Amino acid sequence: MSTLTHKHWQDVYAKKPVDSLSWTTNRIPAVAQELIGIAKASAPLKRVVDLGGGASPFAAELVRHQTVAERITVVDVSENALAIAKKGLEEQVFSAESPALDWVVADVREFNQNGEYGQYDLVHDRAVYHFLTEKKDRLSYSQMLYQTLRPGGWLLIGTFALPDGPLKCSGLNVERYDADKLKQELNTGYSTSTGNEKRYLELIESRNETHTTPSGAKQKFIYCLFNDKASM
């Protein structure tokens, strides 16, 4: 088992104030907003899933800006993390047009294995994938993506960047990426042939970001936007 363990993340969110955690942010990073805009320009984002959403403001921001039409699913391995996210939405003003919200306690490698949550127009992952330090876990993740992302859908993923992103986070080892490495790793296990058709993830755009932690440290991230494609 890799570092996405239930107990570890339950303890993190139980023992530390959320505003002291290194990955904490009170907004969707500007580069991520820009990349979401590219995806949204091609077609409405009716269904979005936030992998490892935890205490992130991502879902709340999507609701506030009316980015998603129908449903937002927030997935995290920690119930404590999801409780914090829910609390952040308590004062959110919902209208009749606001999307439905699902809160799912699950390891991202095992999410939606039987397709019970359907497929999504956008899959979002900020700072989960880089904790998958074992090849078999990354393979499980890619297979989950294939099950979860609709044909023609979008993946927005943010990880620690090569060459100078952090080597550890929350006391755990991480993998660092550039755009080419992410493209290669994500497509391993993703492509599945159906008749003459084969799906793959095409890299549309990548952007670098420097995240400032609550303690003032700087962390180098890379964000990549992928589009599900089919080739004959």
Describe the protein's architecture and organization.
By secondary structure, this protein is an alpha/beta fold. The protein has a single domain, classed as Vaccinia Virus protein VP39 (Rossmann fold), CATH 3.40.50.150. The chain has helices at 6-15, 30-42, 58-64, 79-88, 135-148, 179-187, and strands at residues 47-51, 71-76, 100-105, 120-126, 149-160, 168-169, 172-173, 193-194, 197-212, 218-231. The strands form 2 sheets. It has an 8-stranded mixed β-sheet with strand order 3-2-1-4-5-10-9-8, with helices on both faces. α3 (58-64) links the parallel β1 (47-51) and β2. It is globular. It holds the Pfam family Methyltransf_25. This is S-adenosyl-L-methionine-dependent methyltransferase. Residues 48-153 form the Methyltransferase domain. Keywords: Methyltransferase, Transferase.
Task: Give the N-to-C terminal Cα separation.
Answer: 36 Å
Strand content: 25-35%
CATH superfamily: Vaccinia Virus protein VP39
- Report the structural category: alpha/beta
User: What profile does the largest beta sheet have?
Assistant: 8 strands, mixed
CATH architectural grouping: 3-Layer(aba) Sandwich
Number of domains: 1
Question: What name is given to the CATH topology?
Answer: Rossmann fold
Number of helical stretches of at least 4 residues: 6
The ordered string of helix (H) and strand (E) elements is HHEHEHEEHEEEHEEE
Pfam family, one: Methyltransf_25
GO molecular function, one term: methyltransferase activity
InterPro entries: Methyltransf_25, SAM-dependent_MTases_sf
Keywords: Methyltransferase, Transferase
